[in-house]
């Protein structure tokens, strides 16, 4: 039993060996800033901006699907372009950038007790390259022929043929260039997040005392650093195929009666590379969400997280396993039955650590002092949604069930539930939770509750019926389904219903954005620690935290991040930097 | 995809070794206070910059492992015709080894505080690395003159792609080396200079290792090696 009450006069934690950069002008303070907090806000704002584009694109798609033939400007080509850009933006430029670039930058230094990231200059570059990647992506809309319409998976050979929008135009070139830039920028940021967790931790902050948010972001970043190179390789090779006529992925193919110069390339090779990135990407988005949700639940249920150790192991286990499941996206591409068996098995095994996490969240809630604050509502909604999306994952993980369901709306419903809606609910919950720290003011409660209920129920009304459409055999990626026999009248009605719900949910996001902007000036004053939370970011001397985060001395950490409702303690939370030992539970085991 | 999986297995080994030192079996909810035995787990004694570079090299290694994986998968298709490697590559390899050795000498000199030797080593390394890049470009030129164009065969495409990627990484390294060299002349603090030189040396050794690996790959030895391994396994 280690139970050391500190002697008097523990020297303050030494300043990290990184010398803090002090901005001298307005430009270096707010624009070309090297402060992780400013970079985090820049990342978040850019990601939100591009996310709004994706939201509008989804509206346009739903207009077409819900009311086919009504809107002349949505041609099949345009529809494909909307699908592609919506998917790519959401997965990479919004979720990855927001979780790692946004939350990672803001929370890692504050939560581990560091003054800043370890390589602030590289961190700044990371954001500007990300912004460049976003601009290149958006420029596709203005390029002749428009953006690429190859689907977010960009499968060759169709991605670079003239039949696909942007295939022989600028669209695909801009998309691939943007991805390459994104990956370069991300690698710079990712190095910072990983090394800051490794080296920037303040005194007493052992790995096993880290809040789970940091564990989630840390593991996801390690995975992203190892997975994104696969997308990089695939993008570079496809760019060469498109621009210089190589045949990495392009088989011998003739187009409009004309033999193309390509020969012998392997589209399957692309699929392997793409999904070697693509599957870990699901967990790159999910793990930060897992971590954040653990902290939200523990804080707002005033109870320590159940099974902290198991939570950490599960995060690491999921991270490792997610690298050996990629081919379950390729069952219909054809593979050796033993491979199919292997990948189905590994896919189902991932359900074990994931289920452990879900049980632990539920057990944390069990007999907790649950405050139904807005972050808590979003966290609870996440658990439900994630379980729901996860269960359909069990369907799709099995080869025999996947084959008939592949490329139907069932798949669309599944991945939107599990890696679209679920992580976004966490993003919202996290914003409601940390907004008071970032701005010093609370978000408006009434607007927040409106936003929550419309988003949560609306998202269910959008994606739950979609499962049924998929089971009926309605295919995805079809711009027009009117003449198909499977499209019964009820299916059409369902589609119109889904579209109307999509507009309503989208509208609720505008309310949320209004709330974000309005509350900066008009929100209720929050104080330093409105949620009475234990982690270090709530213990800063200033709110919002000043440059350097912690004033003169770095905090010293005496306990783990989840000392809520400890018997014998004066308050129902004990900050991580408070010395002393409390509670009968501290007797030697 | 076996190459990248083996590579990731090595990374996982490192990660596992490191994690095993983080007291994953500990019971943080029972441990209060600032015990001296926790402090040891706070952070590594290595300089942060070295750890950062180490992580970056893992990413670079991942990139080249993926290229190698793609290479092996693509070469099984029947249209693959290996190209004869120019003799010049042997010379380039020698030059790159020289560059690495020069940096190692600079690193040793920096540890001993011999600034003149450091400068000599840095300049030699820079010039030989430049010579390597020029040599690579000449090898490309030679191949295109002989009709081995980028798009005429996948083996050629991979040759240009992988050597090009490697060259770009050397080019990036030269930026860092240039800054270190400038520091060596402008009187950077000795410990600072030493760290920079060591970082350069680490990066150079790694890129040399990558070059040797891809040289073996492009020359076809790696395929033979994999073939033998597969036969042993089956």
CATH superfamily of chain A: Cytochrome c oxidase-like, subunit I domain
Name the beta content range of chain B.
Answer: under 5%
CATH class of chain B: Mainly Alpha
- If you compute it from the alpha carbons, what radius of gyration of chain A comes out, rounded to the nearest whole angstrom? 24 Å
Radius of gyration of chain B, rounded? 22 Å
User: Biggest chain pair contact, residues each?
Assistant: A-B, 74 and 55 residues
The rounded distance between the terminal residues' Cα atoms of chain B is 18 Å
The overall number of domains of chain B is: 1
Mass-distribution shape of chain A: globular
Number of domains of chain A: 1
Strand content of the residues of chain A, in percent? under 5%
Record field, number of beta strands of chain B? 0
Would you kindly provide a written description of the structure presented here, covering whatever features stand out?
With 589 residues, chain A is mainly α. Chain A is built from 14 helices and 2 strands; from the N terminus they run H-H-H-H-H-H-E-E-H-H-H-H-H-H-H-H. Chain A has a single domain, classed as Cytochrome C Oxidase, Chain A (Up-down Bundle). Helices cover 61% and strands 1% of the residues of chain A. Chain B has 8 helices and no strands. The radius of gyration of chain B is 22 Å and the shape is flat. Chain B has one domain: Cytochrome c oxidase, subunit III, four-helix bundle (Four Helix Bundle (Hemerythrin (Met), subunit A), Up-down Bundle), CATH 1.20.120. The chains are: A mainly alpha (589), B mainly alpha (234). At the A-B interface, helix 5, helix 6, helix 7 and helix 8 of A face helix 1, helix 2, helix 3 and helix 6 of B.
List the helices and strands and how they pair.
The complex is a heterodimer of chains A (589) and B (234).
Chain A: H1 26-31, H2 36-66, H3 76-112, H4 120-139, H5 171-199, H6 212-244, E1 254-255, E2 258-259, H7 267-300, H8 308-321, H9 337-365, H10 374-397, H11 399-405, H12 409-439, H13 445-472, H14 489-522
Antiparallel strand pairs in A: 1-2
Chain B: H1 2-20, H2 36-39, H3 48-74, H4 88-112, H5 115-145, H6 154-185, H7 190-219, H8 221-233
Helix pairs in contact in B: 1-3, 3-6, 3-7, 4-5, 4-7, 5-6, 6-7
């Amino acid at each position: 039993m280690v139970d050391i009450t500190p002697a008097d006069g523990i020297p303050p934690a030494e300043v990290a060996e990184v010398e803090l950069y002090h901005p001298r002008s307005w430009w270096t303070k707010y624009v070309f800033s090297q402060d992780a907090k400013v970079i985090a806000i820049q990342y978040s704002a850019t990601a939100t901006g591009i996310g709004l584009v994706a939201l509008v694109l989804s509206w346009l798609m739903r207009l077409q699907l819900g009311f086919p033939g009504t809107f002349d400007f949505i041609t099949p080509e345009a529809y494909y372009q909307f699908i592609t850009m919506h998917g790519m933006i959401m997965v990479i430029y919004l979720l990855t950038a927001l979780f790692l670039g946004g939350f990672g930058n803001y929370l890692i230094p504050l939560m581990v007790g560091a003054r800043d990231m370890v390589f602030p200059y590289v961190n700044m570059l990371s954001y500007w390259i990300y912004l460049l990647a976003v601009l290149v992506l958006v420029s596709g809309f203005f390029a002749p022929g428009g953006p690429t319409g190859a689907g977010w998976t960009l499968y060759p050979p169709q991605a670079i043929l003239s039949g696909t929008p942007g295939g022989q135009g600028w669209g695909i070139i801009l998309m691939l260039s943007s991805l390459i830039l994104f990956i370069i920028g991300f690698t710079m940021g990712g190095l910072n997040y990983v090394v800051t967790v490794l080296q920037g931790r303040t005194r007493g902050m052992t790995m096993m005392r880290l809040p789970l948010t940091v564990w989630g972001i840390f593991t996801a970043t390690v995975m992203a650093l190892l997975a994104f190179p696969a997308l990089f390789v695939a993008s570079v090779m496809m760019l060469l195929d498109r621009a210089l006529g190589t045949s990495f992925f392009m088989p011998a193919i003739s187009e409009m009666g004309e033999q193309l110069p390509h020969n012998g390339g392997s589209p399957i090779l692309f699929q392997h590379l793409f999904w070697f990135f693509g599957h870990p990407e699901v967990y790159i988005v999910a793990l930060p969400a897992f971590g954040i949700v653990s902290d939200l639940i523990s804080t707002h249920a005033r109870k320590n997280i159940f099974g902290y150790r198991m939570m950490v192991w599960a995060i690491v286990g999921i991270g490792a396993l997610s690298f050996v499941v990629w081919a379950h996206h390729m069952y219909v591409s054809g593979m050796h039955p033993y491979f199919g068996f292997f990948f189905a098995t590994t896919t189902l095994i991932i359900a074990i650590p994931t289920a452990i996490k879900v049980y632990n969240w539920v057990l944390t809630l069990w007999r907790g002092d649950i405050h139904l604050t807005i972050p808590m509502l979003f966290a609870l909604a996440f658990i439900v949604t994630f379980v729901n999306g996860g269960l359909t994952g069990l369907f799709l993980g099995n080869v025999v069930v996947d084959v008939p369901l592949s490329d139907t709306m069932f798949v669309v419903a599944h991945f939107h539930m599990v890696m679209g809606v679920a992580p976004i609910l966490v993003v919202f919950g996290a914003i409601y939770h940390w907004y008071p720290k970032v701005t010093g003011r609370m978000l408006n409660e009434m607007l927040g509750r409106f936003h929550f209920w419309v988003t949560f129920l609306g998202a269910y009304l959008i994606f739950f019926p979609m499962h049924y459409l998929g089971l009926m055999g309605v295919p995805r990626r079809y711009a027009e389904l009117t003449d198909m026999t499977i499209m019964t009248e009820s299916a059409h009605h369902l589609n119109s219903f889904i579209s109307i719900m999509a507009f309503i949910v989208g509208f609720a996001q505008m309310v949320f954005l209004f709330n974000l902007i309005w509350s900066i000036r008009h929100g209720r004053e929050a104080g330093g620690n409105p949620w009475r939370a234990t982690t270090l970011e709530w213990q800063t001397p200033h709110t919002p935290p000043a440059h350097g985060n912690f004033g003169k001395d770095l905090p010293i950490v005496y306990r783990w991040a989840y000392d809520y409702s400890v018997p014998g303690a004066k308050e129902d939370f004990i900050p991580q930097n408070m010395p002393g030992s409390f509670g009968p539970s501290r007797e030697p085991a | 995809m076996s190459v990248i999986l083996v590579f990731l297995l090595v990374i996982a080994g490192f990660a596992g070794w490191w994690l095993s030192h983080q007291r994953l079996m500990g019971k943080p909810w029972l441990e209060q206070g600032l015990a001296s035995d926790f402090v040891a787990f706070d952070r590594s004694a290595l300089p942060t910059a070295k750890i950062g570079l180490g992580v970056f090299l893992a990413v670079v290694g991942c990139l080249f492992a993926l290229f190698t994986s793609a290479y092996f998968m693509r070469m099984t298709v029947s249209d693959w015709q290996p190209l004869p490697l120019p003799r010049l590559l042997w010379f380039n390899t020698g030059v790159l080894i020289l560059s690495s050795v020069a940096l190692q000498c600079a690193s040793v000199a920096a540890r001993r505080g011999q600034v003149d030797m450091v400068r000599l080593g840095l300049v030699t390394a820079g010039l030989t690395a430049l010579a390597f890049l020029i040599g690579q470009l000449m090898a490309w030129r030679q191949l295109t003159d002989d009709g081995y164009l980028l798009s005429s065969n996948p083996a050629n495409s991979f040759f240009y792609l992988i050597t090009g990627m490697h060259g770009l990484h050397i080019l990036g390294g030269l930026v860092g080396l240039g800054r270190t060299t400038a520091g060596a002349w402008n009187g950077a603090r000795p410990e600072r200079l030493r760290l920079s030189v060591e970082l350069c040396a680490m990066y150079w050794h790694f890129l040399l290792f990558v070059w040797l690996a891809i040289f073996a790959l492009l020359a076809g030895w790696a395929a033979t090696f994999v073939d033998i391994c597969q036969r042993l396994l089956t």
